[in-house]
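Final report, results section. Input specification for complex C-07:
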Amino acid sequence: MIRFEPRSNPGPLLVYGVPVLAATIAILLAAIPLALAGAPIIEAYGLMISGAFGSVFSTSEMLTRATPLILTGLAAAIAFRAKLWNIGAEGQLYMGAMAAVAVGSGVIDGPSWVMIPVVIIAGMAAGALMLIGPTLLKTRLGVDEVVTTLLLNFIVLLFVQMMLEGALKDPMSMGWPQSEPIIDSAAFPALLERMRVHIGLLIALVSAIALAIFVKRTVWGFEIRAVGENAAAAKFSGISVTKTMILVAALSGGLAGLAGVSEVAGTRGYLATDLSPGYGYAGIVVAMLARLSPIGVIASALFVASVFVGADSMSRAIGVSSYLADLIVAMALLCVLIGGFLTRFRVHFDRKSAQG
Amino acid sequence: MSSAAHTSSETSQDLLLSLAGVTKRFGPLVANDAIDLTVHKGEIVALLGENGAGKTTLMNILFGHYVADEGTVTVAGRDGDLEQLEPGAPQAALDAGIGMVHQHFTLAENLTGLDNIVLGTEPIFRLRRDRSTARAKLGELMAGSGLNVDLDQPVHKLTVGEKQRVEILKALYRDARLLVLDEPTAVLTPQEADSLFAILRKLAATGLAVIIIAHKLAEVLAVSHRIAVLRGGAKVGEMKTSDANHKSIAELMVGREVPASRRTPREAGKPVITLADVIIDRGDSRRSLHGVNVTAREGEILGIAGVSGNGQAALAQLIAGLDKPDSGTVEIFGETITKFDAHTFAQNGIARIPEDRHHDGMVGSMTVAENIAIEDVRSPEYQKLGFLDFDAIRTRAEHAIADYDVRCPGPDAPARLLSGGNIQKLILARVLEKSPKLILANQPSRGLDVGAQSEVHRRLLEARQGGAAVILISEDLDELLTISDQIAVIHAGHITPAMPTDSIDRSELGLMMAGQKAAPHAPDGTTTTKPGETA
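Structure output:
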């Protein structure tokens, strides 16, 4: 095992080149299922590109889709950096959305510059709490967080359903299980007139940059890196592993909660159980494609969103299943993982020799 | 251990392996420079050299993991004819009967010893496992060599020494005629090492050729027939072991005179740390202490001798601030400690050198500079408002790299690129730079080469001279007897009173380490364990 560890810093060409190459290969490989489905391949690719970038509207749709993916991608990236395997971003997203609705649908009101931060803080706090619980169970009792966070997703979704049938149900919804709408002062303003893309995108971009700086430049970021890379050495040096893990849980859960706020206050306007088509899970893929780099998450979220939006529109136009998008994203992930392994293996080969 | 005279059968028809003019370059680095090496049947050759001397590269070429730029590897076939080994083909090396025992074992922990040995030699598709042939063959091998180990135990239940035996059996089972052992004693206790050497001698007597890669001189002198010394990629010397002496080989390896570590007499000062009746019970003798009393004083090195797994880990955890006593007290500078916390300890003048420097001592993916500052990133010197002051961190690292001669590409290089000796220098730089009052050195020179070892000793002695108290936990008696002022013995969670090093008889120390002899009653009550408890 030890002999397969990476031994050197791969150059920037490899670090940035491999994911791009992997994504390209995955898109090219999509020709195989397209051909099997009997679709005209070149035309299908053209439709995919125009579906994601062909007009202001399609680009706006793509960016709207990318917004929650950046946030859940960041949530996964920071947690995985610290080896906290948070699979519960989906549940944290819904809790964040529910908290935003609870405070943002008329209970309190004020100007936008008060209400928008209020819904954001409420949503992030709810998401953070959702992950701090399992993290405490992990650090105190050694309970596997993969199991707890994963199962909490289903519990949260059922809880949201219950609330939407009860306390949070909109009396004006004609019986649909959905919440009262977010009031105007708490809603995220759109960035472009008559388009869906909203300031959630800016918040997501700022979050990515802030997180990158946080991890690289602050004491807490230092401690998170140390705990994630070698918890034993971090502990020996006097860093509290438990405290660091809780900080990571708060950040990761908070970012996933923020994705929920952004969806409910920016895109949808109200909470329903189909708010997220699996953004929490997709965030894991986004983070892995980005090799857990916060800035990289922006690029990989844009890639995943374009594939989804492009494939969606292509499938409607020529009548192939839109599951093709899932296929491309899955293949990109596999290509990145394989590429990452090959990079490390080759670099290690050189290193071992140099040590002699 | 002494350099006993060996008889080696060195006739040319017994030639088994010959490396001729092997050169390997990696970019500007010449890892192997025209190295010649021969090994005969029944011969034990020690390949000596410091870390980075080119030993591993040479062996990787032998095994086909690398292709040499120049030179040839020839192996005698089973009929005795010399044939050139296909370069870059590990399978060819295996077929030629070359077996390797790595320093880090390559065993599947959940499988039994037998499973591990036959793994890969059985056909994948079979109706029934018939291992009676394998057992018979292994039984013969064990009987002939003394490589006794319970083959039906899962490997994770075996001791380190037993695991190594499984590795050797694995190679022999595959009909190895040349066995290469990479640092075989690095993980063994002295007793285990002695029994390994006895086995190797027996095996050599039956015609097996052995190459031992090593950097511990005493062992090499005891077991080998011939010694080849590498330095900076070139072979700088080769001699019969009977003609070699400790000092000359050390100088050949290091390329300069190695200063002998020596204590200068010094009065011990006030007690720095006092453990009184400390009990730590973790239900496992390796991690428990049963009422120990220890005092370390200013300007004194207190050696803790013992066979590994007798409670050293518990003692080290306690002094490192990672564990707290179930009962009893720990006083540091006369103050009873109530908060056992690694951060507080590190910030209050306690330097801690971990036993496993790779596992506990550094974060491989972080930079050298970050690893040097890791204990202190929260202090105002290295951060402002939570943001790291990278200039201050880098400046400190630059000083540390220069003062402690840490060989690395620079302060921003990932720490995992460093060799073991340089990691240890990095840790020394991290903890000693702050003029600590108490130093916990847990196996500080284990696995290090001669030069790095002497450097560690020099630093510890320097700190002692400066008035620090040093607790040196070690399994290396030579190290303890050289630099400790006092030595206490730890056995089964009990620690004997400390005895002045000058009054200690080596063989008595050995008996005490084995728990067969109680310590003499110390005149000073503070360091006395209750009589009878040490038995």
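The CA atoms of residues 93 and 124 of chain B lie 23 Å apart. The domain at 1-97+177-258 of chain B is CATH 3.40.50.300 (Rossmann fold). This concludes the modelling results for the funded period.
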